[in-house]
Amino acid sequence: MENNRPGGLSALSQRTPRVADRRRVKQQIAAERVGRADADQVARREHRRHAATCQHLADRREIGHVLLEVGKAGAARVKRMVYPPGFRWSVDMKPVVGTDLCMHAHVGFLVHGEIHIEYPDGCIIEHRAPQIVAIDPGHDGWVVGQEPVVMIEFDFERDTVSRLGMPASHTHSPALGPSSVPS
Q1: Rounded to whole angstroms, how far apart are CA atoms 172 and 178?
Q2: Domains of the chain by residue range
Q3: Which of 80, 89, 61 is nearest to 154 (CA)?
Q4: CB 100 within 8 Å of CB 139
Q5: Which residues are 135's β-sheet partners?
Q6: How far apart are CA 130 and CA 135, in angstroms?
Q7: Which of 108, 99, 98, 118 is nearest to 156 (CA)?
Q8: CA–CA gap between residue 101 and residue 163 (Å, rounded)
């Protein structure tokens, strides 16, 4: 089909009203029915109705004493995790998951509290809110102190490591020294 319309639009696309245009027309018709004084009220009511149908609700559950709220956002999941004081992965989650270490990568924002992460090579990393975190798979972790840890995480379920370009397991970069400094 040849396109001779200004701006490169086909006749079909010029005739098809956009959703926003249709919504505006509905609001105008409704406003004319109830009078101009109520036009703003009708627009607000329509906006609230539309917003309520577009909400992404999170599933809420508890696993190994961790409160987990999970929702989809595009191809990813967004999670709010609340770890109680005294939580330790090897004590609370190991019996549930059945692995010696947490094999999930964690990427997100530590909103509240402090956690320590320990890897099998003895490396311990401390995270204290507010802080962005990236935790490699193959770790134990525990809450420090008497405050819960609240973390917002983003993941792709089993594809988190590859999709976020993370290592499959914890490794150390070579220490900077005279032999590793570029000349």
Answers
A1: 18
A2: 10-54, 59-163
A3: 80
A4: no
A5: 106
A6: 15
A7: 108
A8: 21
How does pLDDT run along the chain (183 residues), one tens digit per residue?
444 544 444 444 444 556 566 667 676 666 666 555 455 666 666 656 555 555 567 889 999 999 999 998 888 899 999 999 999 999 999 999 999 999 999 999 999 999 999 999 999 999 999 999 999 999 999 999 999 999 999 998 888 888 888 888 888 754 444 443 444
Beta-bridge partner residues of 151: 81, 110
Residue with tokens 């004084």: 37
Question: Residue 103: how many CA atoms within 13 Å on its side-chain side?
Answer: 7
Can you tell me the distance from the alpha carbon of 104 to that of 92, in angstroms, rounded to the nearest whole number? Answer: 15
Specify the fold of 59-163: Jelly Rolls (2.60.120)
Residue found under tokens 């770890």 = 83
Start-to-end C-alpha separation, the chain: 62
Q: Tokens 């109830």 belong to which residue?
A: 34
